[in-house]
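Hi R.,

Here's the chain you asked about this morning:
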Amino acid sequence: MVNFILLFISLFLIWTGLVFPQSGQEMIVGVILSFSISILAITRMKDKRNFKISGIIYGIKFIFIFMWELIMANLIMAKIVLSPSLPISPKIVKVHTTIDSKVGRALLANAITLTPGTLTIDLIDNDLYIHVVDGNGLKSAESIVEPFEKNLKGVLDI
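And here is the predicted structure, written out as tokens:
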């Protein structure tokens, strides 16, 4: 029951943050959606882990880190595209991730794909095959997943 209440409150707070300022109708819709999603999530949880606030904190950190990486990648891609010589050296790199959850690996692959200049081609077990536009500018293959991995582990409580 505590998990349900914490999840409901967290979802409603996220709703109020996204839909601001709110009218009475929007608050009712937020309560209904938060309640429905909370019921679905609690009944579908297979291992019945306890809901932790730290997961939400890691989720918020993940969103901010993702946004930062997105902005930086866009600036790098703009620089590449606007340069007359178009200095690219595309490569496909194999990166091993320590995230064991299927959902976590899928979220990591999607976060990488949404970042300009990178595309997750394949996900086999714990290995990601990533196409990068500028392979020479890459410090290491692991530097692609480092910003996201720790926070995704915190969100998924692994």
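One quick note: The CA atoms of residues 34 and 40 lie 10 Å apart.

Cheers,
M.
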